[in-house]
Amino acid sequence: MRAREFNFDGLVGPSHNYAGLSFGNVASFSNVKSASNPKLAALQGLAKMRALAARGFGQALLPPQDRPNFRLLRSIGFTGSDADVLAKAAREAPVILACAYSASPMWTANAATVSPSADSADGRTHFTAANLNNKLHRAFEHEQSARSLRAIFHDIDHFAVHEALPGTPAFGDEGAANHTRLCKDHGSAAVEMFVYGRTEFDASASAPRKYPARQTLEASQAVARLHGLSAERTVYIQQNPDVIDQGVFHNDVIAVGNGNVLFYHDQAFADEAGSLDTLRRAMAGVGAELNAIRVDTGAVSVADAVASYLFNSQLLSKDNGKMALVIPQECEENAAVAAYLQGLVASGNAIDELIHFDLRQSMRNGGGPACLRLRVALTDAEAAAMHQGVVMTEALYHTLVAWVEKHYRDRLDPSDLADPALAIEVHTALEDLSRILGLPNLYDF
Questions:
Q1: Catalytic residue among 126, 179, 250, 407
Q2: How far is CA 10 from CA 28, 183, 210, 405, in A?
Q3: HSE-CB of 269 using CA atoms within 13 angstroms
Q4: Is 371 part of the annotated catalytic residue set?
Q5: Coil, strand or helix at 196
Q6: Of 26, 262, 281, 406, which one has the greatest count of Cβ atoms within 10 A?
């Protein structure tokens, strides 16, 4: 059956800020407490969506989440009016206030794991909202993520949206950032690859020593069960614990795949040879041959890969049978990465084009092109059944640019998080956005 891949990019919210909350994310930590530009961040993201939609790629958006998270603040004892809550949190627990204002929902690769209808037992597209329980500032996101997904994919004949897994360490789930679908084409049955960092119930298994492994094997297995995936077409691969300790907090910082192509660093997996062999055998079962594009450490070090976010890129299928690699501008500014990419495009392999974007506001907070998007392969009937108000068009682009220009600040300092006016501005902006997108009950204000 014919299917097309849509990328749902996160629309950056009005309170985009650099709080440095994500231990293990080198870029996030490096820019802690510096001033941000929410307006520029949103416009950069919209420019990317517009350009890819104009090229004919399936492009849509996921709306930002409401901020600050008053539910979090009130659940830990801050009381009174909204202004009182903000003042008390700023005075007594400024880090927790920063958590309540986290900009991280913009990275929708962590919103959920998605299994297209061609892979599931009941023939529906399945979503499981990620619990993101490794970090306080992300642990509440799944509630609005599931709400937004249900609003967009509301037709239960075509879609199933599951709640997040139990919020315990055993089921640490970071969503599609640790999930890759490999196939002959988007409409046919595929191999779903889950990459995990640790195993909860096997004390002898290797694990990183410096930074946390956020995805567990047990969580990946649970998502596969919920989605009704075939055991023969589901592969579990352990991420190399040493690269997690070098700042590779998700698999999508060290590998990216699309169609039958897996673009990966030679240090990505704990057992490179065994992982590739397992993938090749599974893909043979769906009539596809794995095209593994290996980047050697001698050409691009892990440090350069993390600094440039070479692998936190998008692989997009083109009409000519080749693929475009969507990269951040930082890849062209890193000498080793730029030299590698020039050779890659000239090599005649599957990737024959580079598309770069200035996403510096997102990059400084620790997320590149792949972090910003959730991939959803949809048949024509499924694409027609989803809510159309979030599909990127030229008209929607211009409407959203005007909305950003109206509601967003062009500078946000850490001290601004205590300002009650900022919370009101965000609330007002999101009420306006829900009207623009045609999703009147999107937020539980």
A1: 250
A2: 17, 25, 30, 18
A3: 24
A4: yes
A5: strand
A6: 262
Render pLDDT for 55-106 as a digit per residue (tens, 0 to 9).
999 999 999 999 999 999 999 999 999 999 999 999 999 999 999 999 999 9
**Residue 297 CB neighbour total at 10 angstroms:** 12
Q: Into how many domains does the chain fold?
A: 1
| 334 belongs to a structural domain | yes
Candidates 77, 80, 71; CA nearest to 99 is 71
Is residue 60, in this structure, part of any structural domain at all?
Answer: yes
Query: 265, 331, 371, 407: which is the annotated catalytic residue?
Result: 371
Residue 183 lies in a domain: yes
Residue 326 corresponds to which amino acid?
V
**Residue 8 forms beta bridges with which residues?**
60, 374
- Per-residue pLDDT tens over the stretch 117-162: 999 999 999 999 999 999 999 999 999 999 999 999 999 999 999 9
| Dihedral sign computed on CA atoms, order 53, 438, 409, 30 | negative
The string of DSSP codes covering 202-266 is -TTS---SSS----BHHHHHHHHHHTTB-GGGEEEEEBPHHHHTTT--SGGGTEEEETTEEEEET
Is 183 designated active site? no
Q: How many of the other CB atoms lie within 10 Å of CB of 96?
A: 18
Rounded CA gap, 226 and 211, in Å?
29
CB 183 within 8 A of CB 190: yes
Q: Whole domain around residue 204: which residue ranges? A: 3-67+102-437
Statement: the pTM of the whole predicted model exceeds 0.85: yes
Is there a domain that residue 343 lies in? Answer: yes
- Give me the catalytic one of 174, 192, 218, 382: 174
Give SS3 for 27.
helix
Cα dist from 436 to 42, 149, 214, 444, whole Å: 16, 17, 35, 17
Which helix (H) or strand (E) covers residue 127, if one does? Answer: strand 125-129
Identify the CATH number of the domain in which residue 61 sits. 3.75.10.20
The answer to whether residue 331 is catalytic is no
Q: What angle is formed at CA 168 by the lines to CA 162 and CA 172, rounded to 5 degrees?
A: 65
Question: How would you classify the pairing of strands 234-238 and 191-196?
Answer: parallel
